[in-house]
Structure formats: C-alpha cells, structure tokens
Amino acid sequence: MTELVIREDRGAIAHLTLNAPGSLNALSDAMLAALKDRLNALAQDETIKVVILKGAGKAFCAGHDLKEMQRGRDSADQGRAYFADLFARCAEVMQMIPALPQPVIAQAHGIATAAGCQLVASCDLAVAAEGTRFGVNGVNIGLFCSTPMVALSRNVPRKVAFEMLTTGEFIDATRAREVGLINRTAPHEALEAETEALGQTIAGKLGAAVRIGKRAFYDQANLDLAAAYDHTAAVMVENMLWRDTNEGVQAFIEKRKPDWAED
User: Fold this and answer.
1) Fewer beta carbons within 10 Å, N or C terminal of the chain?
2) What pTM value is reported for the model?
C-alpha cells in the first residue's frame, strides 16, 4: 500500500512528502487523514526542530480531489453532510500547522492551487521554485475558494487576495514573493538545497525559544496592541528565566559559542 505522506528525518529536520503524484497530491480524504497523523506525531516529537512540507512528482498540491467530492453527491442529501465534514477536516489540518511547535516550511514547485495554495499559506514559511504557479481558482468551475480564502487573506493584502479569488488567475513565484505568500524563490534544481538551508538556519537556534516564539507570534496577532505587548512581555520574562537563555546571553557577552543544555 502506498504511503500517502512520507516522513524522512534528517537530523533535527523532518521532511514530509505528499505522495500521490498521479493526482498532483490532491487532498483526498485519505491524504488529509495521513497528513493529520503525521502532524500529530510531530507535535509530540521534541527531537524535531523544523518541518519541511513538499510534494512528490511535478506539483506541490492541486487542492481537493474533485472526483472524490463528486462521488459525495451520491447520498440522499446530495452530499451536504459529506461536504461539511470534508471542509471541517481540511480546516482542522490547516490549523494544526500554525499550532505545531516547530516552524513548518512549504517547499513548493509546479502548482499550488485552491486548497493546495491554502496549504502553502497555512505554513509558517515558504520557498518556491521559479515558475511555480499559485492560484485559488475554484471560481473557474463555479466554486468560490471560501476556505482557502481564510489562510490566503491572512498572508497577502486584501485586494490581492480578492483579485485572485474572483478572477481565478494564477500568480507566479516572483509575484507570490512580492505579495508575501512565500519567502524565497530558487531555481528548480536548487529548491531542495535552498529550503534545507533555511531549515538548518532555524534548527541551529535554541529550539525551546523558537517554540515559545512561534506560539507567541500567532497568539499576539489576534490581540489588540496593548494586549499584544502585555502577552509578549510575559512570554519574554519566562524566556529570560531559562538556563539556556542565560547561557546564550552570557556567551554573546563573552564572544563565545553558547553551551546549551538542549543540544
């Protein structure tokens, strides 16, 4: 049986590969379940500092499996219960990514469309091969990408998001970087190395500090200005009292490499 989400650990970096190239790594029911299982396992794995998410074959992810969705219409309610459950399950997986303790980097190539674009937008960081195309193009078949819109509109300016959603037009990697959907671009042959380098940079930091910082990053974004400062100040106090943070500060003062207990 084909493993739909392959996990390969390289030191402190876990590589997750969506492995359904024949369907352009569509987010089928089985794919969503497999990805959820992998994310749940990583949430408990303190040996992993960074997660890289990529797709097998010629594309990152083409979104939902439309053929499978059409089969859902065969029920007496014409698919209402199935569709509600599908979009709830997909939303749960998308929300698991920012909630994961480790930073998650999308490594995109080929296309990332509809829920596949949503997946890129849900990741904390993204690197894409030059020429990669991104779109929330459901409107072209009469299905507005309302759930992908949630992640997209939290990554790019509103007018950019609305244009993509209402026209169904794609943007390339250069434009995606300009508007903030991705962080970096690389030639296709250098994509893996560029993504790995970013991952290694983050993995080289104090993991506990990155974990507490990631949580605070998303928590403060939902607060008003004064509450955000109150919350992050409390986080920094906790962070400052750690043994490894004390060691890191002292090592900087003494111009030496820190001797972190974590490592």
Assistant:
1) N
2) 0.96
